[in-house]
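Two proteins, back to back. First:
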Amino acid sequence: MTRTAAITRALTIAGSDSGGGAGIQADLKTFTAFRVFGMSVVTAVTAQNTLGVQAAHELPLDLIEAQLCSVTSDIGVDAVKTGMLSSAALVHRISDLLGDLRLSNLVVDPVMIAKGGHQLLSENAVSAVRNRLIPLAKVVTPNLHEAAVLADRPVNTLEDMQAVARELWTGGDQMIVIKGGHLERTNEAVDVTFDGKILHHLSSTRTATSNTHGTGCTFSAAIAASLAQGLSTLPAVRKAKSYVSAAIRQSLQLGAGHGPTQHMVDVSSPWSEDLGL
């Protein structure tokens, strides 16, 4: 039997989006765009489209654990990202498993609210994310709302973003990325990164579109894919931001609400924007 060449492997632990724009579906599309073999642990099933989330159901913890153990015991994982973890019990179980399995290159996207406003993380799970999951992560990618919830105070300015990035950092080679896409009164989408020593500002031109469903999932998946391929943290974040910016510029007009980004953007092609440091 002829064996194919080795390929890097990335795992997403997240909820399913039946509309295909976010969650597991967005992650797997992003992994494929980066030429990374994608695997999944489904934590919840949602009834979802461009207008919002109509229903959501968390899967049994034992089934979630079985998926994770099945994948890691046979195929192996070069990077992993977490997305929708809706309950404190689930966050604790996943944190325990990730610690026991010693999986490297963990990207935590602390998903809390869907684009349409549906609550995806219970209030009692916030402290579990902050105290159990984030310390395990190599990269953490909250948006402004998520950063405010995790820090328990408003995050409305670039200075707020910088302060919270420092506050959320838990040590080691971890990088906190505060996404500024929702920052008001600015023509640029500015993200703030902090690695324990240096603050960087990553800027890209803001695209005027409502078709941004799944951008957070896509961004964190792109970081995980790049880490799986051996990039160091800051280049992985920069490449992911360039990819997401291009995907938003070419976003898809599907449905009557927030359409998805274009995951089929060619990762190997040079993008028109250079991100400033």
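And the second protein:
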Amino acid sequence: MNSYTKILNRLLSTIFISTIFTSGCTERIDPSTIRMGLVSAPVDLDPRRATDAASSRINRLIYQRLVEFDATNLPIPALAEWTQPAPNIYRFHLHKPPSTRIFSNGQIVTAEDVRATLASILDPATGSPYRTQIAAIKDMKVLDNNTLEINIAQPDPLFPTRLVLDILPAKLIASNHPFHNQPVGSGTFKFHSWPQTGKLQLMRRTDKQMLEFLEVKEPGVRVMKLMRGEINLLQSDLPPELFRFLRGRPKLRVLERPGSNFTYIGLHMQDPALSQLVIRQAIAYAIDRDAIIQYLLADGARPAQSLLPPQHWAGAKDLPTLVYDLVKARQLLAQAGYNLNHPLELSYKTSTDPFRVRLATVIQAQLKAAGINLKVQSLDWGTFYGDIKTGRFQMYSLAWVGIKTPDHFRAIVHSTAVPPQGSNRGRYHNPKVDALLDRAAQLPTLEAQATMYKELQHLLLKDLPYIPLWYENQIAAVG
């Protein structure tokens, strides 16, 4: 069972217990439908194509994966365990009992289903955004009903992490089954109905408990519906002040756990001012992250020093802490020729999201106290993101969501990864960083790679091509 399913089942159990106690019934679980409010409806329930958050969350319930991640983001067996007979060969064996890997149409998951799923993702006609993720596959061979051998182009100890993919039935793939609106998986839940865009129903296969997902775009309306009992569950996607409000409601329960979504300030490293390390250091010292987390984020985050949290298998646990030091920030700015009477002028781009605008104005006030006048530009998402990708900015703030593997560093700080080749949006170029990344990719074990990536994180925190801010908590509210 994947981690998202475990969390949801735990939340559903909380709802069931609450229902039992409020109804006075102690003999059986209330069979009524459990309703979850979503900020946006799912778009595509074909996991080969789905990229939006709502579809991805729901697909985690419908399908099982070949591989999952543990708490440190190391790959662990899900449907299959694996061996590596040769550096370029992985042999995956479906180790779960057949009774625990049955598609909702009654077929047992076999090695051919795995092969067909991966082959369809690799087929350009499918149009899967995950094709490049497994592009190293040269050929696949079904050895028996439960064993698939995969030959990759070159040794890659991270290859099992590329296979965190949902498995579909081979026969339905061959018949061009419409998975996008009639999904068939082997997960804990099965598809029940999708009567309209903003209303989707799943059924838990063990006890036929119904779970309904309802689109409610406005966060305030979602909260009111939760309080009135029209929906039973919310997860994230709420402004911090609303979670602060929900924490104080006696009939509601708010559940939180540390998350890994990484919020940062991006900097244009070719800008005359921001190319100076003392300026970047001054910005880092001038931002009071603890105050922002406490007052703006309602304590719903923890400070970050790197893209990877310290509990990640490649995370650096000994990184120095970025501290708020206004005196130090002013001293560094003075070295660059700026002070309160002669402030540095910079621009900061953000979206029109109300929370992001509030965050920008807080950062603006904090930097002003150090001697930096920040001009905030609030743009619609399309314009904002377009400017970020094309390098039309000095500073901006965004978040990296769902980062699992350390090779993502290559996409964001290697000098060859400038858009459109990658996500090095700040046009950062450091030969030492490039060399570390190139060497890490050639190392034969995850342990050896971890050592290299930890060294990289120390270098990046010292050089500050971006300013780490925080990791947002995962938060759910149950009514």
